[in-house]
Amino acid sequence: MKRLAILSISAATLACAATLHATTVGLDTDPMGTAWDRNATGTGFTLWDTFPGTPGGPTTFTDDAPDSSFGISSLALSATNGGMLTGGGDRIYLGGNPSQWTISGTTTFDVNGAVLQLKQYQYTTEALESLYSPTLNGLAFDNISISLVGEGANTQRIISWYWGASLTGTVNSLNFSLGSDVGTHSSIDALSIDVGPAAVTPVPEPSSIALIGGTGVLLLLRRRRFSATA
After folding, report:
1. Is 205 left (phi over 0), alpha (psi -120 to 50) or beta?
2. Closest CA to 112 of 224, 36, 46
3. What are the pLDDT digits (tens) for 114-148?
4. Where are the domains of the chain?
5. Which end of the chain, N or C, is surrounded by fewer C-beta atoms within 10 Å?
6. 30 in helix, strand or coil?
7. Which of 4-8, 19-23, 80-84, 211-215 reaches the highest mean pLDDT?
8. Quick one: pLDDT at residue 110?
């Protein structure tokens, strides 16, 4: 059974953390849109919504298997920072320290697009997208979209990075990396990855811009173009 979060950096944060376990609320379960269907042949999906270790203890760990996955083999998540586990072990509080995340796995199909989502718990002013610049096999993600999602009395930030290069071969190695040398007091609830046969460009829907609270509000769409071949 999940336990209550007991650590925070202020009294106000403690009051909120004590009422909310880590969840995957707000993560897009169809981040590829019409580009491809999740769980179809030639696609892969993985999700981490719990992390290993003892609550209150350091968050340095290696080779953590995903909580759910499809179509990607030999998956492993490793994290290095001086933060700690909260939310009963579900959430990582980075504790003002630099952090580095790596994810490895393999596919037996061509990959022409990827989406990496990160759920930032109780977003206030520290935006992880300004600190993290993820890569896949050394190539930067070329698009990003941000949404805020209401969850109870809290505001959660969903950061989605999009990758549009290509990996072709009988077996393809996937090596994701994200992190920052700059410390942050942010907390992370969940991390997910989708890979598939086509690149995805995030497009804001007019209806989503007007929605606030539990359904989210699209705040920012920034595109960085590049051309890369794996």
Report:
1. beta
2. 36
3. 999 999 988 777 888 889 999 999 999 999 999 99
4. 11-223
5. N
6. coil
7. 80-84
8. 95
